Every structure is written in C-alpha cells, then in structure tokens.
What we know:
The structure holds 2 protein chains of 2 kinds.
Chain A lengths: L6 H10 L4 H19 L2 E4 L1 H16 L11 E5 L26 H8 L3 E6 L33 H9 L4 E6 L5 H7 L2 E4 L19 E6 L2 H11 L29 E5 L9 H16 L3 E5 L7 H16 L17 H12 L2 H14 L5 H22 L4 E5 L15 H5 L6 H6 L3 E8 L5 E7 L5 H15 L13
Chain B lengths: L2 E12 L38 H13 L3 E2 L2 E2 L1 E5 L9 E5 L5 E10 L2 E14 L3 E5 L10 E5 L6 E7 L6 H18 L11 E11 L9 E6 L2 H20 L7 E6 L4 E4 L12 E2 L6 E2 L2 H9 L5 H10 L4 H8 L3 H12 L4 H19 L8 H12 L5 H12 L5 H7 L8 H14 L1 H8 L5 H12 L6 H12 L4
Amino acid sequence: xxxxxxxxxxxxxxxxxxxxxxxxxxxxxxxxxxxxxxxxxxxxxxxxxxxxxxxxxxxxxxxxxxxxxxxxxxxxxxxxxxxxxxxxxxxxxxxxxxxxxxxxxxxxxxxxxxxxxxxxxxxxxxxxxxxxxxxxxxxxxxxxxxxxxxxxxxxxxxxxxxxxxxxxxxxxxxxxxxxxxxxxxxxxxxxxxxxxxxxxxxxxxxxxxxxxxxxxxxxxxxxxxxxxxxxxxxxxxxxxxxxxxxxxxxxxxxxxxxxxxxxxxxxxxxxxxxxxxxxxxxxxxxxxxxxxxxxxxxxxxxxxxxxxxxxxxxxxxxxxxxxxxxxxxxxxxxxxxxxxxxxxxxxxxxxxxxxxxxxxxxxxxxxxxxxxxxxxxxxxxxxxxxxxxxxxxxxxxxxxxxxxxxxxxxxxxxxxxxxxxxxxxxxxxxxxxxxxxxxxxxxxxxxxxxxxxxxxxxxxxxxxxxxxxxxxxxxxxxxxxxxxxxxx
Amino acid sequence: xxxxxxxxxxxxxxxxxxxxxxxxxxxxxxxxxxxxxxxxxxxxxxxxxxxxxxxxxxxxxxxxxxxxxxxxxxxxxxxxxxxxxxxxxxxxxxxxxxxxxxxxxxxxxxxxxxxxxxxxxxxxxxxxxxxxxxxxxxxxxxxxxxxxxxxxxxxxxxxxxxxxxxxxxxxxxxxxxxxxxxxxxxxxxxxxxxxxxxxxxxxxxxxxxxxxxxxxxxxxxxxxxxxxxxxxxxxxxxxxxxxxxxxxxxxxxxxxxxxxxxxxxxxxxxxxxxxxxxxxxxxxxxxxxxxxxxxxxxxxxxxxxxxxxxxxxxxxxxxxxxxxxxxxxxxxxxxxxxxxxxxxxxxxxxxxxxxxxxxxxxxxxxxxxxxxxxxxxxxxxxxxxxxxxxxxxxxxxxxxxxxxxxxxxxxxxxxxxxxxxxxxxxxxxxxxxxxxxxxxxxxxxxxxxxxxxxxxxxxxxxxxxxxxxxxxxxxxxxxxxx
Lengths: 488, 482
C-alpha cells in the first residue's frame, strides 16, 4: 500500500486514524520487497519482530498510551548497532551469526519511543569505507542509479530511506559515514555533537570519532529522530551530561541575521562542477534570506584527512583486537591459542579492515608513535583551534558534503586514496567533535543527488538545524528515485 | 669484589570493592566460573567502561598512605596485547599520568629505619583466569584452556617501588609493611595465598658503591613473604655467581620454584613487547579534585608506622611496639582504651598480648566482656595488692566469662587478698609457734627460710594472704630485718 514517506506525515496519519502502524510496516516491507534485489540495503529484515512491535504500537496507541512522534514508525538500524536477540555482524565474516545479549542505548530508546525496528542495514565492514562495497555480504547500490554506490559506510541505511523501505534510519559517522551517503542518496543525514548520542552498543570503529545519528527524508524528521535518541547515558563515560539544544523549535526561525561561513578549503580541485554550482547557488539563496555570507579559511582542513587516517586506524587497531575467536563470532581452529587467533583474524577480516588495522598498529608502535599518532593529535588540536577562531566570526559553516555525486560501483575499489578523498569535507567535524549535517539541494545533470553540508560548533545543533531547514525550503527538493523493477 | 643488590618491587593489589572497575558485576572470588560477567567485562562488541568511584577512593587512600602526590587529572591508557583471558585484548591501565606519584614507605629492620621510594601507583583492571587442562597443566602442552572471566575487570592497583631495596630481608620487610598498610586501609583482602596481593621483584647486581644499574631480572610467583625472601636471596646469589663466572646476566622473567628452592627461566622473548599504549578514547580523564583527596585523607585509619611511633612514645620498647602494632584490631583497640583509663602501657601490653590473646586463641571468640576500663581496674587491683598476680588471671577469666567488674569477680570468687594486719597476725603466730627451729634459723641469717614460712602462712590462710604483708609480719615477729 502507499504510505506517507516522512516520519512527520506518518505520525500525523497514525493519530488521525487514517492508517495503523501495521499498515506503515506493510508499506515499507512492500517497498523492500520491490527494491531489495536491486539495492541490497538490508542485511537482515526482522519480519516477525517488526510485526509484533507494530501491533504492540497500535494497541498502545489505541489504549491512549502515546509514546510520541516515533510511535509506530518503521526505522532501520545500521548493522553495527547491537540489537538484543537479532544478529549483528558489522558486515563482517568475523561476527557472522553473532546475536548480542543486549540492546544499544539508542535501540532501547527507539523501542521505548514506540518505534518499529524493521531490520539491520548494510555497511562497509566495521564502518570502514565510503561506498558500502566493503561488506562481507555484498555491496549496496544507489536507488538513484543502481550501477552506482550509495556512499558509505552507512550506505544501507541511506539507501533504505531513499528507497522508502524505512521511514528513517540510524547510521554511524566516524569520518562522514552518515553525511556522505545521505548526500549521495538525496537524504538528510546528521552527525550530532560528539558525546550527545550514547555510543553504548555501537560496535566501535574509532571511539573518539564515532557518533550515531539519523538519516531521514527531511530535516524535520531528522530532528524528531535525533531528539528520540540523544541525551545523557551513564553507560557511556564520554556522554554529555549538560543541557541539550532544542532542535525542533528552531526549524522555522530562518537565517535572517545569521552569519554563515563558506569554507574556502572545501572547494576547487577534485570538486565536481555541478556540486560547486549547486552549493554556490544555495549560498546565494541563503544570502537572499538575510544571512550574512563570509568566506572563511581553515588551513588545517588541508591536513585533516591525513590526521584522520592515523587516528581512526590507530583506535580501530585496538578496538578490533577483541575479535579473536575466543568468546564469540568466527573461530578458525589452530594448534595453539595464538594460531587460532591469528587464523580467525586472518580469515574473518576483509582487506580494507586488515589494511587499517595494520596502519593503526604501525601508527601506535614504539618509535613511530610521536611521528604518527602524536602528530595527528596535534593536527586535531590545530583543527579545533582553527574552528574556534572561525566560530568567533560566524554562526555556522557550509560546504559541499561530498566533492562528487555518487560514483559508479567499483570505480574506487582499487584505489584506497581516491576512496578516502570521498570524506574530505566531512572529516574535520569528526576530529573537532562538532555537529554537521547534509541536506539535499538538487540533482546534477545525470539526475544524481547533491548534498550541502552545514557545520556548527559543539552543541550548536539549534543553529545548524535552523540553517538546514532554510536550505531545505530553498532547495524544495522533492524528487524521488525511480528504481527499476527487476523481473523475477 | 663485593656486590650490591638493587631491588625494586612491583605490587598488585586487588581492591575489595563490591563491583568491578568498569561495570556493575560483583567482585566475588568464590563464585562459580563465569557467573559474575556482563557485556563490559566480557569485552562484548559495543560495550563501554564506566569507572567505579569506590575503586578510585581505594587507590587514593593507598597513595596517601604511601605519601604520594595525587594527580588531579590522570589518564587511562590501553595496554595492547593478545591473550586469551584478556577479553578486549587490551588492558585498561595507566601509563604516563598515573593517579599516584612520588611517595615513600618506611621500613624497620634491625632497629634501623629505611625509606623506600614509591615511584607510582596506578589503577588498572584485572584479567580473567586461564586454567590449562591436560598434560600437566603447563600452557605449552595443555590440550585445552578453560577461561573464567569472574576476575576480569576487578580493580587492581599496581604499586611500583623505586629500586631502593638492597637485600632479601629488606624486600620482605617492604612487602610486609605494604601488606599491613593495605590491610589496615581496608581496601583489599590483601591475602598472598589467594593472590589478592602479589609481589614481583626486579633484581640486578652491581659492584658495591657503584651507581650504575646492572641488567635486571624479574622474579614472579612468590606466594608468601618467606618465599619472597628466599627467592630474592637466591636470585642475588645466582647473579653474583654468574657474573663472577664471567657470564652475562640476561634480561628475562624468572619463575620462583618453591619446591626446588630456585628461580627458573621463563620465556625470554617478551623483553621486546610493544604494548602500543595510547589514551583510552572510551574514558575521559580521571578527575580527583583536592576536596575529594582531603575527604579521603580525613577518613584514613591510623597506619602501622604512625601507630608504632605512638606506642613507642607511651614507653613500649620498639619490638613491643611493632608486635602490638601487628596484633589483632581488638587487641590494639583494648590497649588504647586501657591506657586511656589510666593503666601503665607496659602492663596493658603484657596482659593483652599475653593472657587476653591466649584466651582469644583458646576459645576462638572475641573478648566482648572486656573493656579498657575493666582491664585498667584489674591492673590497679594487682598494683594495690588487692589480688595477687596469680589470682588476677583467674579474675580475668571471670571478667571474660561475663561475671562482671574485676572487683566483683574477685570477691565472688573469693580471691581478694587478706591485707588486714590483725587478721593475719594470728596465723603468723601459729606458724612461728609450730616451728621454733625455723624461727631460729631465720634469726641466725638463713634467709631462704623466710620463703618457707611465708608459704606456710599462705597455706594457713587458704592462699588469700598478701604475701608482702605476711613477709613483713614474720620479720617483725622474729626480729629479723632481712
């Protein structure tokens, strides 16, 4: 059946009684059935669990127990979020068949908010990648062009939302893994301020950079989903315990009087013309709405990528050490415990994960630590200082989310450096711990979505959503992908 | 050539907190394997650590007791290495910014006080426990390894001494003093046999008087103070013999074999381990503000060193002070009460470490009926001659048995000495009249007869006479002035 394709609209329809949570679930499952063969957005759809949850949501609502805007809404989860009783693999062989005994904090919060968990979405193995091609279970494809990648690593979540096989999804963003796929699939993706969304139950890639966030069709939906999952969590020592911004109420405030910086370093060589033109047009639009536009320079952004590719692998090399065949997941036997561990890891991890573990292990090694990891931490401090200087002059920053639109499947698989450049615009916010989001602003000449990134200082989600909502209004982006139906 | 040993000791103390270092699981060593576990201490994907406040209080208390500086912002690091009973394959520990730094511990040996530097004390988590099954249980030949994660994540404090220790006896004194402190603080069970306190020694030798450091060897597996002393002594002699025979000392870890009475080489390859330490991004810096430190300082009990000094100022011999200091808490408490009630320290010490301790051992009960006031009263009764020293032991028995105040007991049990001259003169007269020969011998200066005569009077009075007074009365009657 045809259902509303935003959380806000579906939420209204549920309360008007024009449809039920079970109808919503039917709608997204029907979409999934029509599109999964082409997209492979999901690794696992939990038909039974979702059905039970949808019926419970309907019963609850009928009993007058309204749990809020996510009540009865079908949501997809990136498969690096632990779900009690539901297989969680990180798209890796090493975790094949692993069923967590607990829910991630964000998952418990979604359940408490009455959301219906549809299933687990595909990703680059352990969230390492920008195309969702590094999945041990096969790649995902872009709903706008099924010969192209959906971005990554939260490509499954982004593809599901773009295709309508979920009304919203959660992803994780370590260097752009929510924003870049959102940009490439015409969806909204938010990486909140580090510490505002609990990482408890998120299978760590790089702990000091990882942050969970929403992928939705609209800015309003992103606000609804974000407000449901964030907040202090005593189970996460890095969780923020102070006052949280109020994002929903800032959506209609407009940009009149805001000072918005355009980042000089995030343009030029390597940026597609269509992307630069769309961003420039949107900046002009913001100016017309009363924003003061300032070109700003952040020289440290030039070396952010290099620093990131030391810090993230270094942390990953330690975080992924626990996958050793001893207690869970894959075990490949050996003559000794050490041999068992080595074989398990050798067979269990894919090539990109192995590459990053090796990189990170070198970066932390005695004699190299200061030159690599130590130096990267100094770059990180320089980025923070650069941003602090700029945020003294402007309220928010804008840039392309990705230098290019969705690229063809396989195009960057043999060239890790080209793949790494996909995240050049998004990485600085992770290193700084600041919030950033991507909003679709149009299509290029091939009909592929372009995203604009809005960045703000830590806990600046109110101003970030204000700008994003204005960008969304100006873009009037209402295109939907047409996914070819595969006969069979 | 004469040689000097340079010894440093690393001590691991398991804190007896109710829950583990980074999760809510119970710390319970008697439990069935793998019953006190959760996603955090099992290192499940996605689980995150949250520090235990009680454990932080424990290490700060240890740091203060060891005269350390307490770091206001210390950092947790990851120590990365692969081992089957280390669930995350890294241990959360501390590296260059530990909680406690630059302290010292004073030990006493043969009447000399020596100050041993404490380089640092840091917080870390314990590992699980491996049991190797099959073919003798040694790791390399075992057919299977069983893993118990109950211990995984138990808070552990590592205390690193400076290499200030010079002999096996000093090593033992250091370990004993450190154990006494930790036990007194109540932060750990501090039992060597159960491994809740473990000592490893780093030993090297150098020509006496030299200030260079030799190649150090680490000794593990000492399960008692005696084996620590023996192991250190053995290792010093082994190294001297080796060097004098022209051999090089190899940097290695050696295992103390209690039965063989020698240290034995373990694998040597671990010398080159690179633990790839880096700040744990899952944990924020550990902040211990000065106000918290002061709160903990104010709650510290009196520590052994301070206690010994206090006992010595009360007039106890240093050896007696040390003995009392290491006595049971009840005994020390009674001592303080008894002295406070006005009794001389030496008498209180003698009663408590003698009769009272013996009674506690014999009956295996606490002396609930004994108070400092009562013991002081008993000491006064002896002093005043109201009861004899022998009878006083019986009075104590009565007091301990719940028969009331010492004087009541003495009266009820008819143990009060007769010290009324009039009452005793008759008995003295009867004894002297009955044995004129003895009287004559005493008169002629045969002193030993007095003892016999006093004994006779004591028998006549059923043992209740005050022997000093009887002595006096006999001399008066005989006209001998002794």
